[in-house]
Design brief:
This protein is an alpha+beta fold. It has helices spanning 2-15, 28-38, 44-52, 78-88, 133-142; strands at 20-22, 56-58, 61-63, 95-100, 106-110, 117-120, 126-130.
Length: 143
């Protein structure tokens, strides 16, 4: 279900290339380097996104992902911002930042298996923002 939802979001991007500004497909070697830098595997749905689009924006929706090595920013470099925020203690070490809300809060995924997207607030609280990364993308791309 989650990968099908990602494919639906990718189809929206393909239908509206004038609104899409992405780094483009990322090679397997680069994705593996990003996983090593983050200390764990990417969830399958997020991996599909970076394999196909890398990182970038669709309309006003920016989605963090993998750009290039070295992972030294700026956003939408998910590897760089995730490592920076982990070192600050702003996010747990098993989370990957995939976007921001504009108020200092981050949308995050847990490393490994597909699961919900969390909105981690500046006060340390978190809420489930979407049931999965595909649903997160669909909600961002539909706006």
């Amino acid at each position: 279900m989650t990968l099908a939802t990602i494919d639906s979001a990718l189809a929206i991007v393909a239908k509206h290339p004038d609104r899409a500004f992405f780094a483009g497909p990322r090679p397997e070697k680069l994705i593996v380097q990003a996983e090593l830098a983050l200390g764990g595997s990417l969830p399958p749905s997020y991996r599909r996104f970076v394999e196909r689009l890398g990182a970038g924006s669709f309309g006003s929706a920016e989605v963090y992902g993998i750009i290039e090595e070295p992972f030294d920013g700026p956003v939408p470099d998910a590897v760089w911002i995730t490592i920076e925020e982990r070192e600050r203690g702003s996010i747990p070490h098993n989370m990957i930042i995939v976007g921001d809300s504009g108020d200092g809060s981050y949308y995050c995924l847990q490393q490994g298996e597909d699961g919900p997207v969390f909105l981690l607030g500046t006060n340390g609280n978190s809420v489930v923002a979407a049931a999965g990364f595909g649903q997160y993308l669909l909600s961002r791309f539909a706006s």
